[in-house]
Amino acid sequence: MRPTDAELYQLAVATGRILRQRGMTLATAESCTGGWVGMVMTAVPGSSAWYDRGFITYSNDAKHAQLGVSMDIINLHGAVSENTVREMATGALQHSLADIALSISGIAGPGGGTPQKPVGTVCIGWATRDGTTSVTTYQFQGDRDEIRALAVAAALAGVEALLG
Length: 164
Hints:
The chain has helices spanning 5-22, 36-42, 60-67, 71-77, 82-94, 144-163; strands spanning 26-30, 51-56, 100-106, 121-128, 133-139. With 164 residues, the chain is an alpha/beta fold. It has a single domain, classed as CinA-like (Maf protein, Alpha-Beta Complex).
């Protein structure tokens, strides 16, 4: 079930609270969500204290040019892979002033899925300045809007879990 806008806003508020308490800032690197995490984060008043910047890297070339994702990784594992989102998250850190970064790449549909990576496959990565990285692959159900909203919620929940 798609998280409501109010639920996503509350997740952003909670994530911002944790970041603020720790004196940290966040950068985002988004593909299939097209900047939705950044939009939710910046909807919170005062978010400039803990949200540094967002990269919308929808194409493979953008992932490579803006975040330094290896084209070999993309060609070998695909844009929707744990390897790619790990490099997206670490690249977002390298190209920002943030202390933590999250990245999202997925197949939101309605087309584009394969038997190995069906529609709803979303990979999310997190990285911190201390070298901690975490990646997870999700299989979300629903239409394009639902899959993207679920990815936003999972990405924010992952920041909380990593810093919690």
